[in-house]
Design a protein that fits this description.
Elements (H helix, E strand, L loop, with lengths): L26 H22 L5 E4 L14 H13 L3 E5 L8 E4 L2 E3 L3 E5 L5 E5 L4 E5 L9 E8 L8 E4 L7 E8 L3 E6 L10 E8 L3 E5 L7 E10 L6 E5 L12 E16 L1 E5 L2 E12 L11 E5 L6 E5 L2 E3 L5 E2 L7 E3 L39 E3 L3 E5 L8 E5 L7 E7 L6 E10 L6 E6 L2 E6 L10 E8 L7 E7 L8 E11 L9 H4 L13
Parallel strand pairs: 1-2, 2-5, 3-6, 4-7, 5-8, 6-8, 7-9, 8-10, 9-11, 10-12, 11-13, 12-14, 13-15, 14-16, 15-17, 16-18, 17-19, 18-20, 18-21, 19-22, 20-23
Antiparallel strand pairs: 24-27, 25-26, 26-33, 27-32, 28-31, 28-33, 29-30, 29-32
């Protein structure tokens, strides 16, 4: 057998002869793998442009694709051998029908090594006892390896784990792969280990994972491009994209999360929560499609986003499309923390901007910042709330605390008029939930209405933005009513109001009903899953 780690490429023309039927029970499969290895070795040497970099198949170290044999040692031996030769490709051949390369534990891909398959038939099934199924050896000088053309399955019969972990490595390229059935599909960074930047993921699918992608502290100058994240459900706690520090609690404002992270050309479908952002983040979400409520669907409607970055953050949303009926929480600590360009499309067609310019705003910016300190006109009392001026504010001037006194409908209300050509209107309210068990805001146009209910526990530290999008009723003569109640549970709760604004909508790009506009295509999944 030739030394394929060091021999020149020409040796592979005759150096890997076909096996005889008596040599192996599955000789035909091995011959196919060897033939692919011959071609791939020559291709790899040509691509790399230097001898000494190699391709070695896991079959050469005894890997078996029966879905029963533990291939951890064989795979790791292949990876280490390629690394010892200076780097190159560890090849995973295509499996026989319904086969897979099972491994129990964690595969560690050394520096300058690419774990590459031959497409969707290069199937791995990882059962890590703890931690990830596949990780990359940390390297402060840059890893420069990657993973390509593989199909990685988890196993619901074993403890939930991480599919692929990029923590501690730099300059990785992950392309053309699928991950199924893990608690966390891809960990861009764990928030604790340094050196997790300049890693790029593209042409991927992450399916049936409780959390699709996690990007935490030290996730710097990374990208997630051209892919799909599907079915991130976990009894209401599933999240497609989680961009947050390790501890998203009271101290999260002081902790950075992702820096210069780009997520673009990604479809996110069927989730409990689409995007979650905490800490100090600089993130761009471009050309992302969100669909939380496919029909038919036994799961409850998903929440599109929960974005509450710390001061100093920039979260840009450009040309996003959302078919998600619950766009409930979208907030931030700065007026420019969330920005939407004019092409972005919100549920039912409304266009939204976090810091609406006065010329676009149907409510005066600073409605709660009255100089006289006695009223918050043009708002009127709704029943009998307790009103108290506060010096806690974001936009300047003053804010007001509203406390429920005797009825769940204690609050404030106002009306404004939209242009006759308006199809939809979105109303946003920046507020803090001081002590309320059930704050509720509503916007109505004639017989059309939308309600915002705060799904989060009270926090006096945290400014939030409640959003409501309603179709404008032609019979209402353009009149829109907004009602803000402090505590529907009649428990005497208090909320603090800082600002309210409204922007007009645009016609829905899809001319059919919401159901007709939702994507109908569904990929067929393998047999196991959460």
């Amino acid at each position: 057998m030739p030394d394929i780690l060091n021999d020149a490429p020409s040796i592979f023309e005759t150096g890997l002869p076909d096996l005889n039927p008596g040599d192996s029970a599955d000789f035909e499969f091995h011959n196919e793998a060897r033939q692919a290895l011959r071609a791939l070795n020559k291709l790899a040497f040509a691509d790399r442009g230097a001898p000494g970099l190699t391709v070695r198949s896991v079959v050469e170290h005894g890997a078996v694709d029966d879905g029963v044999f533990d291939n951890l040692a064989a795979f790791q031996a292949t990876l280490n051998a390629v690394a010892a030769a200076g780097g190159g490709i560890a090849l995973v051949p295509a499996v026989q029908a319904n086969g897979s390369f099972l491994f129990n534990g964690t595969l560690t891909i050394p520096r300058n090594v690419i774990l590459r398959g031959l497409g969707d038939r290069s199937v791995l099934r990882g059962r890590p006892a703890a931690g990830p199924a596949i990780r990359f050896a940390p390297s402060p000088d840059g890893h420069r390896g990657g993973l390509e053309s593989l199909y990685l399955l988890g196993d619901e019969a074993f403890p939930p784990a991480i599919g692929i972990d990029l923590t501690g490595a730099q300059f990785l390229r992950l392309r053309n792969f699928q991950v199924w059935d893990f608690q966390l599909g891809i960990c861009m960074s764990d928030g604790l280990t340094k050196f997790a930047g300049c890693n790029h993921v593209s042409d991927f699918e992450v399916n049936r994972c409780h959390v699709g992608i996690l990007a935490s502290t030290h996730c710097n100058q990374a990208s997630v491009l051209n892919g799909r994240i599907w079915l991130c459900r976990n009894m209401g706690a599933g999240t497609a994209i989680d961009i947050s520090p390790p501890e998203a609690g009271d101290q999260e404002d002081a902790v950075p999360s992702a820096e210069a992270l780009t997520i673009a050309h990604v479809a996110i479908e069927d989730f409990d929560l689409g995007v979650r952002i905490r800490g100090r983040a600089h993130v761009s979400l471009r050309d992302v499609y969100y669909e939380a409520d496919p029909d038919p669907n036994p799961n409850p409607p998903g929440l599109w986003m929960d974005i509450r970055p710390a001061k100093g953050s920039t979260v840009r949303m450009e040309n996003s499309i959302a078919n998600a009926s619950r766009s409930l929480v979208m907030g931030g600590s700065l007026e420019d923390a969330i920005t939407n360009d004019e092409r972005s499309h919100i549920y039912n067609g409304a266009k939204r901007h976090h810091a609406a310019a006065p010329e676009r705003n149907l409510l005066e910016n600073g409605d709660f910042h009255r100089a006289d300190g006695k009223s918050i006109l043009p708002w009127e009392l709704n029943l009998d709330p307790v009103l108290a001026e506060s010096t806690d504010f974001i936009t300047g001037g003053r804010s007001y605390d509203i406390t429920q006194s005797s009825s769940g409908n204690d609050g404030i209300k106002t009306v404004f008029t939209v242009p006759e050509t308006t199809d939809y209107v979105t109303v946003m309210v920046r507020y803090k939930n001081i002590s309320s068990a059930h704050p509720q805001f509503a916007v109505a146009s004639g017989g059309k209405s939308a309600i915002f209910v705060d799904p989060l526990p009270p926090s006096e530290k945290e400014w939030r933005v409640g959003t409501m999008t309603v179709e404008v009723d032609p019979l209402a003569a353009g009149v829109v009513l907004v009602v803000i109640t402090a505590d529907q549970s009649a428990a005497g709760g208090t909320i603090r109001l800082d600002e309210a604004w409204a922007v007009v909508g645009a016609p829905n790009r899809c001319q059919g009903s919401v159901e007709e506009c939702r994507g109908k295509a569904r990929s067929r999944a393998p047999s196991s899953g959460f």
